[in-house]
Amino acid sequence: MEGLRGGGHGEAAVDGGDERWVEDSSVDYQERPPLRAATGSWKAAMFIILIEFSERLSYFGLATSLMIYLTKVLQEEMKFAAKNVNYWTSVTTLMPLVGGFLADGYLGRFSTVLFSTLIYLSGLILLAISQLSPRLKPERNLHLHETLFFVAIYLVSVGTGGHKPALESFGADQFDDGHAAERVQKMSYFNWWNCALCAGVLLGVTVIVYLQEKVGWGDGAVVLAAVMAASLAVFLAGWRHYRYRVPEGSPLTPLVRVLVAAARKRHLHLPADANELYEVKPQNIKRRLLCHTDQLRFLDKAAVVEHDGGEERRGAWRLATVTQVEETKLVLAMVPIWVATLPFGITAAQVSTFFIKQGSVMDRRMGPHFTLPPASTFAMAAIGMIVAVAVYDKVLERYLRRLTGGERGLSILKRIGVGIAFTIVAMAVAATVERRRLRSASPASMSVFWLVPQFLLMGIGDGFALVGLQEYFYDQVPDSMRSLGIGLYLSVIGAGSFLSSQLITAVDRVTSHGGAAAGWFGKDLNSSRLDLFYWLLACIGVANLVFYVVVATRYSYKTVMAGGKVVDDKAGDIECAAAAAAAAY
């Protein structure tokens, strides 16, 4: 990267501070410093948002119908189908940890998006073949069809593993954090990214699901494959406008070096003045420097300069910079936040499983000639999220900026907390509605629109919590780990789905006394007590929200040096006493 910045326009940009050129270590398609007017910003982000729209269209066209397909076509019992859906969702949302690591360290984000989309597309094509080929249809050969079906959807999982973390971080890379206008645009980028995401969800759970129900599952798969192929072509058409990041090897290596260096120097005393810790000169690098914090002080020993016989002892595994130490602190500080958001992931898993199953046994008639497909009930959650994101971006955020004086309005962690609170209320409402359905003289005659409040509340909660999680795990990780950061965000949903499966198993074992009696999960909803399960999730959510508030209030946001000032993600621009001192090294 340094070599790419050594001369030409790059030198003019650094020396003269010319805003025509982007100075955030990104490059254009010719590996030169990007021209601001010709690359990045919304002109590039729109290509990227479009392929996200098509990916979500495909994913939710599959995910929301999966429970229905497993129970109706493959004839699985409800609890086993729910477990299979949760396991698939877990793999799909945990694979981005692998994809993000490869994108950040080795393949680059653009290449990762390209390769993973091809894998994704192959899964959709195989899915269409398994549905359309007469010899592979379930009524002809159920075992073979089931095998190909699961291979196809897990190919989609693998494709999603590279697509999701690389694409979202690649889109955010199009905005320069060091440029005031583009930094504000990036905050809106995450909001509108999720609006496009929800638009894809909305079409996926209405148009695609309708095709699957009324025309055929194979026809729906063909449409999904065609849309994904077309969006890939559009994504490739924007390659000249993108800003690229050159991979620099494993993003985890610098973190391990800090831990090793701190362990080697564990017997040394920390200096009273943090300005005595080692840091490079800002003019010698193109990456952002971080200010020192007082959290996890034992790691500061990695930045203590050792003197042996009057000479300094250096080496990558013996001496780290303050910025590297602070990046390690950021990653370690994310662990309790990640743990505290897992119950939110468990709650979110119910929307694509039990919520939709509820809709399938209720009255879905909309007039004399149209019946709403069960999976289309998910559209109500997508509408709730679109409304929440749009209202927050266009109305609430402006008001909150004036109220708090910060660039964001609500801080990232407060936004997540608000979303978690909404999902707790959604579980309580879902429990009340399910209890009413069970007590009804004719449960099947109860209108599916009774589910609207719980779907809308979950959508609104996602509009706060999911967007907040995306921003948090993209922005608060080290700059070299941003795809992996998106993978961490997705792992909240994946781990939550996995924990949901384990919770269902545990609750079923306890309430059925090991199978000796009827438990909360019967063969169908009418013989189950899903209302009690929802109340259990609400109680877990309340207890966890208290834990989350404690963890969030103790969290220190990333503070970035910028000419004697830093940008603090919690409150905007604040004074940084360490910045000037560190710049003097």
Automatic annotation (TrEMBL):
Subcellular location(s) per record: Membrane
One of the GO BP terms on file: oligopeptide transport
Entry protein name: Major facilitator superfamily (MFS) profile domain-containing protein
Principal location class: membrane
MF (Gene Ontology): transmembrane transporter activity
Residue ranges of the TM segments: 113-132, 192-211, 217-239, 330-355, 375-392, 412-431, 451-474, 486-504, 532-551
Bilayer topology: Multi-pass membrane protein
Top-level lineage group: Eukaryota
InterPro entries assigned: MFS_dom, MFS_trans_sf, POT_fam, PTR2_symporter_CS
Entry keyword set: Membrane, Transmembrane, Transmembrane helix
Stretches assigned to the Major facilitator superfamily (MFS) profile domain: 44-556
Pfam families: PTR2
Family: Belongs to the major facilitator superfamily. Proton-dependent oligopeptide transporter (POT/PTR) (TC 2.A.17) family.
Cellular component annotations (GO), alphabetically ordered: membrane
SUPFAM superfamilies per the UniProt record, alphabetical: MFS general substrate transporter (SSF103473)
